[in-house]
Design brief:
Length: about 400
């Protein structure tokens, strides 16, 4: 395990490359993924900011900045965009909408910064983002939510969601419903802390109702598996990383959740020698092509953030040895990349472990240079091997 210390030290020394001062239309310091990215992106910066909160000497201000920077482009009658840009250009496109991590970010920012006054100030707008989902992206017959398309989900070409015209606003996806379930719980906790008892109870009830809908419509007990479902009722049997997200947030009881993870996530079609694939190897769309523009590739390659979410689920359901094994496999490819390239990539070949994108052609002649949620390997090592990696 000591060999990974080099990787940890590299990532902990990378902060100057991801922290930017307030600039132009971005009113507060912000976090960038590295590579060719210069904007504050939604879930990239969310996971980076949580990593900074987790340090021995925490920096929770960056999660608060993350919230406030998105609120700087907030409009109560519009979707909040997925990125904040310094050039004042607000991109309002249905594929680029703030993913549902906002309540969790605001809750932790309020708690870790010990700032209930700020929490009280932002609560109505945070709540509005969830109400907006209910208004425009909830399927009333099932009570489930849907993405506009796969790109909106962040897994830009996930075939379990799809991006063909006939898929638009049609797929009730496991990941978005898992995320919103967690948002309801966070909004309820935030309301409880602020003394909004009715809103706390209201959001607890919404969370419970959504959990019941997920189990009723997306969980197939006879197969020990979650599958996406189209709004016309047809089941989408594509085994992608997104199918397991409800387990990240504990939607199923322990024994049932363990069966899903053991039978499907840890199956050789999903688990490669280098970590959990983004799409099962036996899927007809499976590939490990190097893509970033126009889409990054979630049809097979290894993504650190997906593995982090899966490891969270494995530990939640008591599969600690499996969580440690996946952590080691992911750490191995990152360490290999650091030795070969001198930096890291955004995703990795699930068949050979090599770094894919960004390559030099995509990144002004520089191979790799991506940091972002690769920082999460530090958190994964600390959680799963605390005897070797105490919190840094």
């Amino acid at each position: 395990m000591e060999k990974y210390r080099e990787l940890v030290d590299y990532l902990l020394s990378s902060y100057p490359n991801i922290i930017r001062p307030a600039c132009g239309a971005i009113p507060n310091p912000y976090l960038i993924p590295g590579g060719f990215y210069t904007q504050q992106w939604d879930w990239d910066a969310y996971f980076m900011a949580n990593h900074l909160c987790n340090r021995k000497e925490p920096r929770p201000q960056y999660l608060k900045y993350w919230v406030d920077n998105f609120l700087s482009i907030f409009d109560p009658n519009e979707d909040t965009p997925a990125c904040v840009r310094a050039d004042e250009k607000v991109i309002r496109h249905p594929s680029l909408i703030l993913k549902p991590f906002f309540a969790r970010g605001a809750l932790r920012a309020m708690k870790d910064n010990h700032d209930e006054a700020w929490g009280r100030e932002v609560f109505p707008k945070v709540e509005n983002t969830i109400l907006r989902w209910e208004k425009v992206r909830r399927d009333e017959p099932t009570g489930l939510f849907f993405w506009y398309d796969s790109m909106m989900s962040g897994a830009d070409n996930n075939p379990a969601v799809g991006d063909a015209p006939e898929d638009t606003n049609q797929v009730l996806s496991c990941d978005v419903n898992g995320y919103i379930y967690a948002e309801y719980l966070a909004l309820s906790e935030m309301a409880e802390i602020l003394g909004y008892k009715e809103k706390a109870e209201e959001n607890r009830k919404k969370a419970e109702a959504l959990k019941e809908a997920i189990i009723k419509h997306l969980y197939h007990a006879d197969e020990n598996m979650f599958w996406n479902r189209r709004r016309d009722g047809n089941v989408v049997r594509r085994n992608a990383f997104s199918n397991y997200i409800p387990l990240t947030y504990g939607v199923l009881p322990i024994e049932e959740g363990r069966k899903v993870l053991q039978e499907h996530l840890m199956n050789k079609n999903m688990l490669s020698p280098y970590g959990v694939r983004s799409l099962a190897k036996d899927d007809p769309s499976y590939n490990n092509e190097c893509m970033i523009v126009p889409y990054s590739n979630w049809q097979g390659p290894i993504w650190v953030v997906a593995n982090y979410l899966h490891i969270t689920a494995l530990n939640r359901y008591g599969l600690h040895e499996e969580a440690r094994e996946v952590t080691k496999r992911v750490a191995d490819i990152l360490l290999k990349d650091l030795h070969n390239c001198g930096s890291l990539h955004e995703n990795y070949c699930a068949d050979c472990g090599g770094g894919l994108a960004p390559n030099a052609d995509m990144n002004n002649g520089k191979e790799g240079g991506f940091i972002s949620w690769n920082l999460l390997i530090v958190d994964m090592l600390e959680e799963n091997f605390p005897e070797v990696f105490p919190k840094a």
